[in-house]
Amino acid sequence: MSHAPRTPPIGPDDPPLRLAACISGAGSTLANLLDRIETGALRAQVVAVVASRPGIGGLEVARRAGIKAVVVRQTANDSVAAYSQQVFAPLRAAGADLVVLAGFLKLLAIPPDYHNKVINVHPSLIPAFCGRGYHGLAVHRAALERGVKLTGCTVHYANDDYDAGPIILQRAVAVLDDDTPETLAARVIQAERIALPQAITLHAQGRLLVEGRRVRVLGNPQSEDHPPP
């Protein structure tokens, strides 16, 4: 039975935030969220997983955790709008309050009932090295080729374009002289593992005020700049 996504704040006496994850790969982001939930660092429950293709590691992560997962493939005849309807149908049916694009490589049209209730994590400091084609090691390869000294990760609300929604949090990562795309990616992933759960918690607490393309963090975000890894 489906439930409308709840609007934050979700209080300590309310049922935990109901998360859904959309995945396209190994599922490391999903695994991190499940670890945070298990340790009590993130007050949430993953209720559904949608994969863009079969045979990926993220489906095994979901299976081991006992989470219902479905594969929704986009055919050549599926428009973005049509494909998005197929993706959000099982998420809505599971009663997801917040959808996390956890390495999901398909463009989605966000339906009205999930406006500012879908978040994405991207492995760069947006607006650098983002948009169509910038995913995985391609992002870090571009950063190294450009010679930047800082990169990092961005957590943002998703809209109907790639990596273009209002930015919630960013964490910087220094680029070292001897970095390879792989070594840089490993450090950015560690930043993502902190930033994404933090952004989810702020959302659940109702502390994110979206003002156009900007997100104001209400309260005292300075106390959360360095949460435990």
TrEMBL record:
Summary of the function given for this chain in its UniProt record: Catalyzes the transfer of a formyl group from 10-formyltetrahydrofolate to 5-phospho-ribosyl-glycinamide (GAR), producing 5-phospho-ribosyl-N-formylglycinamide (FGAR) and tetrahydrofolate.
Residues annotated as domain Formyl transferase N-terminal: 18-200
SUPFAM superfamilies: Formyltransferase (SSF53328)
InterPro entries reported in the protein's UniProt record: Formyl_transf_N, Formyl_transf_N_sf, GART, GART_AS
The name this protein goes by in its record: Phosphoribosylglycinamide formyltransferase
Organism: Isosphaera pallida (strain ATCC 43644 / DSM 9630 / IS1B)
Active-site positions on this chain: H122 (proton donor)
GO cellular component assignments: cytosol
Catalytic activity: N(1)-(5-phospho-beta-D-ribosyl)glycinamide + (6R)-10-formyltetrahydrofolate = N(2)-formyl-N(1)-(5-phospho-beta-D-ribosyl)glycinamide + (6S)-5,6,7,8-tetrahydrofolate + H(+)
CDD domains xrefs: FMT_core_GART
EC number: 2.1.2.2
Pathway involvement of the protein, from the record: Purine metabolism; IMP biosynthesis via de novo pathway; N(2)-formyl-N(1)-(5-phospho-D-ribosyl)glycinamide from N(1)-(5-phospho-D-ribosyl)glycinamide (10-formyl THF route): step 1/1
Residues at which (6R)-10-formyltetrahydrofolate binds: R73, L105, K106, L107, L108, N120
A biological process term (GO) from this entry: 'de novo' IMP biosynthetic process
